[in-house]
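Dissemination and training. As part of the outreach component of the grant, students in the summer workshop were shown how a complex can be specified as a set of sequence lines and then modelled as a single object. The example used during the hands-on session is reproduced here so that future cohorts can follow it. Participants entered these lines:
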Amino acid sequence: MSNGITTLPPTLKANLLIGRWIDFSSNGVVTLRPGKVEIGQGIVSAIAQIAVEELDIRYERVRTLRVDTTISPNEGSTSGSRSVQEGGESMRQVCAEVRALFLQAAASKLGLDIDSLQIIDGRFQTADGSVGVTYWELAQTVDLQVQANGHARPKSVSTFHTVGRSLPRLDILAKVTGGAFIQDIELPGMLHARVVRPPSFKAWLLELDDAPIRQMPGVCDVVRRGSFLGVIALREEQAINAMEALAKACVWKEQPTLPTPEAVHSYLCAQKSEDELLCDISTPLIESESLELQATFTRPYLAHASIGPSCALAWSKGTQLEIWSHSQSIYALRDEIAKLLDRSPDTVVIRHAEGSGCYGHNGADDAAFDAALLALAAPGRPVRVQWMRDDEFAWEPLGPAMVVKLNAKVTREGRVASWHEEIWGNRHIGRAGRFPGPGLLAAWHFEPDTPVPLPADMPLSMGGGSQRNAVPYYDFAVKHVVNHAIQAMPIRVSALRALGAYINVFAIEMFMDEMAIAAGVDPIAFRLRHLSDARAIGVIQTVARMANWQPSEQGNGSQGRGFAFARYKNIGNYAAVIAEVSIDHAVRVTRIYAAVDCGCIVNPDGVLNQIQGGLIQATSWALKEQVKHDTTRITSRDWEDYPILTFSEVPELKIELINQPQEESLGVGEGVTGPIAAAIGNAVFNAMGIRVRDLPLTPERLMTAMND
Amino acid sequence: MTQQLSFRVNGEIQDISAPANTPLLYVLRNDLQLKAAKFGCGLGQCGACSVLMDGRRTLSCETPLWACEGKSITTLEGLGTADHLNVLQKAFIFEQAAQCGYCVPGILISAQALIDQNPKPSEAEICAALDANLCRCGTHVRFVRAVLRATGQLTETAPV
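and obtained this result:
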């Protein structure tokens, strides 16, 4: 706020026309067009809830439309736990302005003072309700084709009646009764397609005789462009049969371009890198006697591993190409597809439809381009492409493997005197539309040796990527952190939930534990003496109370507890967790306590759902998950090779939310993922006295660490 | 190759003409437009395609059509609809037991198969029965609570 004018949120500034966000054309219904997409996080419902608050209508009156490039504002990607901050704040301001416009119109229509009117479920009325007029009655007279200008101010927190309540999500009924997903869309006369991907990252299709496959039942066409290969059939199982036959008929040239699995981390550290100094604070303490510790932490390549493999539909209609996609970046996808097909973006329409949970950049965008290519080969007919399970495991962009090396000194009095940290790995954001080179998978297969763009990171001030949470949130006198962003990409990588924060927090919080123990200080007390942020201290004290944490408590050889803390991105939500583990041959997490402060809570149950999901998914990463490969191919291509946590393995969860109604709402889905991994690692040490610094914490890793 | 087969789906007799080795999943989804059973892996590993066959949980992605002859198949659509939710669906909504929701139809089917056999399953029995269904979002604790609620074993009126 300045001069009574509200500063417009960035995604509203980029889409000023109010009528792009909302309309009242359907009687009794408010139609919202958020630019953020539902990816299972309940965001569309949270945005609806914010709109309800500002407009003073019942929740049941809201209808939300899916993002569509012909009608929706362009709010960029739905990612990085920024959706409530960006999409929610923009919708809040839009609705505040809409409310002000209607209030003025109502006052003038009724011949009454604005101050004499209140809004009850969309009706502007006098205190006794005897005189009034609704949004819908006024809709003809209020022009929403105007630009947001910041003259209206959203409600103050003290008057909230809807935000802060656990309203039910709008999308759940459809999900418990059947078909709610892109995979379930049926278009008239729809054909079914499959793609046949190369067996490895750099493989090239040398020979293919597709004549027998073209004769198979139902096959309409085999589409080939370089090493991009797809098949279109009348029925789905016919497309699958033809895909299998094609895969057998292909002769590929493959190259062993991958490091051996054992050497991945030394490979990363040996690559040419772009080096970036992330933090260089040097205010030396008066030199006192100190202990020096060093350690190396690693994470493997991780899969998003959506339960439903990627899917898309496309329909070439004259000059227009319509595509349905579960992409998180609808507009960027449109522009990239237009670029790759050498056509104007005006001729490409993308409509969002929900996919299976993605947790980052999975195969969604690539499947959309596959569908586009295949639909262009079948003009006039809609074409549905469904990736198979192994397409997703082998070709989705993976969460990058990384290495973190730490070296620090801790004084005898238990203060960190210096902290030196280096991280290695790929940058994390490979989403289409950010690079001049082709950003979608199929385009890399048109010509041999097409260079694949290296991913990028956001600047640290915007949350970073590989370097996310690399700088410890603690007050250290000497803090020196360097990122080595490697310039090779042996395995395709891109954004996976929390990006680098998962390993960076794991490393920092494991190492803080090591230092605390080396200095003979309780791990929680040790953190607290290096923190000055009251909200950080708040979540830590809360979780310690919840778990009845005892100073320097000891495990018993097979059971133990560990603590960890992080402020996500160092600018987002605060999370402190305590994990309880029980170890026989494998680590089992039996209970997790978590305290989270994500500012002003829009929907407590929605926040809880996201935290539960983050804790369980990251427990699965930490205990079980790593992509397998040899020197040529990804070899983990099904759920047996890439197991995830099952129901019987899921820990009991105890979560407390610290609501801060006066603070900005902060995203919540990703913040606990780093802390829970570290808390498990610390609990293993607490139980058994061994440090396992390489993720995941498998039985083999435990054995190796015990033997060291 | 194409054969005529006849079996019941959600109580109605369906005559299907398709190759006998066609996986049931595609017939349900494409011929009968019953979209609740999902393609997840096609390998019988994830449970997203679960249906009931003569009351037993069955993976439709690896059940060939010939194995359905004369059988009675129930999909999620046969358990309840938006207008007539069954007790499990109501409990799932009450507990807001979904994130992305892709695995939910398969979970509901497995839960139904469980409570048909065991009307008051313990938490451990619920987990064991659902172990063959994968969930990636981490909604497990809500699914378990929803099954407990559907079987009258939770008394609080507010979720969580």
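Chain A touches chain B through 63 residues (CB under 8 Å). Students were then asked to discuss how this feature might be tested experimentally.
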